[in-house]
Design a protein that fits this description.
Blueprint lengths: L1 H16 L4 H17 L9 H4 L5 H19 L10 H17 L6 H25 L3 H27 L8 E3 L2 E4 L4 H22 L3 H21 L2 H18 L4 H17 L1 H12 L3 E3 L4 E3 L3 H14 L30 H33 L4 H20 L12 H18 L23
Antiparallel strand pairs: 1-2, 3-4
Helix pairs in contact: 1-2, 1-7, 2-4, 4-6, 5-6, 5-14, 6-16, 7-8, 7-9, 8-9, 8-10, 8-15, 8-16, 10-11, 10-15, 13-14, 14-16, 15-16
Length: 454
Amino acid sequence: MIVLALLVGSVLWLLKYRFEDRYLRAYGLFFLILLVYASNKAGYGIPDSLSEGAFSPLSLVRWVLLGVWLFYSIRMKRPPNFRNDAPLAGAALLLVGDMLLSSTYAENFSYSFFRALSFAMLAGSVLAGMAFYLHRAENCVRFFRFHYYVAWIALAPMLLLHIAGLDSFGVTIIMGQFAGLFGNQNMYGTFSALVVPYVLFHWRAVARTPRERWIDAALLVLIFAGLWFSRSRNGFTSCLMAIAVYFFVINLKSRMKVVAASVCVAAALLVVPNFQEDLREFLRKGSTRTEFGSQFIEEKRYEMWSGVFPLFWKEKLTGYGFASSHLLVFPFTKDEAAGRSIHNSYLEIFGDLGLPGMVLLLLVLFRVSGKAFALVQQRGDYLERNINAVFISIFVAGSGNAFFESWMFSVGNLTSLLYWAPVAGIVARWAWRPAMVREPSVSAQPGRELTFAR
């Protein structure tokens, strides 16, 4: 509990003394409760009675903080000349409406409805408040700085304890795999991958002295060391993808070099027999139980997907109801805990909502991808390119990561928030009209102090 108390206290101190922005504080508090849920709750002394269920004490705190964030999002003023995208907004609203409607024929109405309602609240906060908030570069920098500090708090201390051999001080180890303060090594890997762009931004656009840049480089080394100890294949792959996309966006004159280097690295990995074997094991690896925190690792993804798809196809027009299709996984895992999710966000939404929901999701992602592509083609200043690179790299890495995990529509999962907030950032930066709205300006040289025009 001391470890968890230090984590919570550090983030609360951060929000109180480093950020005066009320909207960012509301977001940060919701982020914090999800970080607590992502931690090794059992190992830190939090019983299931306090966290499991829609109306447990911690769940009620999560609902309240989500409501507070939604409240501040609704109050967020629309920036002048903010460009609309009617197809994107329409597809998002129809997708949320389909989720709510599907709960009426779900096996467990209350569970499905509350899950759909929570995602509707998240969507409202993202589409209204976050998209408007990230419209200005100053707010983007504050948003990035919060995640940069959290990366230090959540990743560095546990890894240093592990390297020092002090695992008894709250470090989570599952079947020999390092998970830090998180409940499983895959969550550790995904979290690391999705915060790397924030560290890269601080290293390239905020750090002003060689000492600060060396500190940021040290954090990047720690992140990769943690991924190595965790042996999270999905996290490591997502991290490499995020870095490659980041540098592709900011290097206007060297994009072909970035693409060539990425292709060479991928080809080298694919021709290595050991990596090919690891890839097969990643897809087909069996379910292994550990008594530490009642965790399960590397469920049989391939067997689950091939087993449930025919069942999903039978209800291809309606699905089984939002957050219900994962119940059909159990016969293909022989393990109740291992069958709690399909480990594929796209297949899960197909099982929940059928083809209509799948088409709506793909339309949303297609529209966001179009905006990301438009931002890549823009020749903005150095700060603008780095801001765009953060949002786009997280979107690409998260979209790939979601193919192996079922977090995309789980509001109680920290990864969902880490993904959808940057999606709002892509929309926000695309909606900016530089010819009509004066935006903060910054020197185009890396490592300079950020100075904004008022």
